[in-house]
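Project standup — Tuesday

K.O.: blocked on the structure for the chain from last sprint. Re-posting the sequence here as requested.
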Amino acid sequence: MGRGRVGRNGDSRRDRGSLGESRCRCLPRAGRQDHPPAREQRLQDRARAPPAVPARHRVIGTCGPAWTQSVESGPGTRPEEGFVEFTSAASVEEATALLVEYGTAAQILAGGTDVMLQQARGEISAGVLIHIGRIPGLVGITGNGSVRIGPLTTHRSLARSRLVLMTAPALAEAAATVGGWQTQAVGTIGGNVCNASPAADTAAPLLVAGASFELTGPRGTRTVVGDSFFIGRRQTARATDEILTAIVLPHHPERTGDAYLKVGRRSAMEVAVVGLAARLTLDVDGTVEGARIAACSVAPTPMRIAEAEEILQGSRMESEAIAAAGEALTRAVSPIDDARATAAYRTRVLPGLLARALGVAAARAERGVG
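H.V.: unblocked you, prediction finished:
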């Protein structure tokens, strides 16, 4: 082994000299400006790249050569097949006008945590993405008897809202389980419900809270009650030329409490194997005056369980009533086998999950929380 002085990094001068001729040539030597083939190719590709286009017309994905189309091209104009156009609406009126113009080729984009994944997987094939994140008035939580939630309100905001925690803690609990913090910081409640996944976490708490959905389109604004909003797997009552402009939770009676519990293969960043929300209203002696039960990931849509609700109504939460409600729950659902769990497992865990959720909801009702 050759001898030599050792440098600060532990290599010898002789060793460093032996490596000198094989060092990276990306950095030019004195009097020389050569580039390796890979870098040369990148420079050539950059030179051939099309000029930038305004953000309002920017193409964000293609299956062929770069292409763009102005949204001022005229009514009924649609992007060519294989290309995706991006446009940003500044008002509800502009958003609905764009939906009318592009029809079924258009897709509303809010936080993008669902839409962009579905587009990449080929589950949807939007020709135009209409971003609504700049529209004023669609974000925030206000309360004056009822609670009004803007559709652009993020899951993180819902999970931390004092108003939601006091009036609908089940919704805050559900929002806190949607993905990780990164997803919660940009994902919106409007996107979660309009995506209408059978496993949508916020759907069950909204159903037990008696939420209504405000939809605005060219014909004006209409309200759809929660039980009529989810009509099929990834299908809602929203027309293709409407956008969701608010979710309204009605004022609830005193001594009302709710809870949301979720079964997953891990404790965070997990799509629900089963999700269940329960809301109870109790009178002063503990009799159930009102009961609402809803579940997700056990049917094509998030669903209310009317038979279980009727069994609990008028009871004093006796173990027999809770067991009968659990049996009614298992009869009402129609789960499937998938990568997360079998239908049999989903059915098996429901009665125990219901009993736990009812216990939490009853305790909160006694305390007057939620």
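K.O.: great, moving the ticket to review. The domain at 55-131 is CATH 3.30.43 (Uridine Diphospho-n-acetylenolpyruvylglucosamine Reductase; domain 2). The chain has three domains: 55-131, 141-249, 256-367.
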